[in-house]
């Protein structure tokens, strides 16, 4: 079985937490920037400062990232546990999935095998360069109704 962390991207480490960021799965939803601007600042370098807030607080904001672009590992704390499975249809955008997910995908999107995750945004417009994941290309004019939340336990 593939190590889930092999899909988590670049690591930003402090004593108590490591935050991982995969730019290919970020659609600039900005839940992170709104949640903790002193940690997630796209204008700064590095853009993630894992020492700028308590580790538990950072973990809480990472869990708000709907696409799985962000992950974390606490030095002395539990791993993220999956929420009840849900699918949310976003207006003019992707499907947001939460739960105990196993995603089989082309090697180009998931080198090393299937993706195990708790959060993902799947492309609904067909134009993503990182299918099955959304890469934000739907902003170039994709139109479809949304607002439905399905299969919520
Ligand atoms: S997709 Fe995730 S990492 Fe990207 S801006 Fe949104 S919350 Fe932040
Ligand atoms: S739905 Fe976002 S790129 Fe297709």
Description:
The chain folds into 2 domains: 9-74, Alpha-Beta Plaits (2-Layer Sandwich), CATH 3.30.70.20; 86-145, Ribosomal Protein L9, domain 1 (3-Layer(aba) Sandwich), CATH 3.40.5. 8% of the residues lie in helices and 25% in strands. The chain has helices spanning 31-35, 55-62, and strands at 10-13, 17-21, 70-74, 86-89, 95-103, 115-122, 148-150. The strands form 2 sheets. It has a 4-stranded antiparallel sheet, with no helix packed on it. The chain has a 3-stranded antiparallel sheet with strand order 1-2-3, covered by helices on one side. Strand 1 (10-13) and strand 2 form a beta hairpin. The longest helix has 8 residues, at 55-62. It is globular. The model has no long low-confidence stretch (mean pLDDT 91). The structure holds iron/sulfur cluster and FE2/S2 (inorganic) cluster (FES). FE2/S2 (inorganic) cluster is lined by residues 93-94, 123-125, 127-128, 134-138.
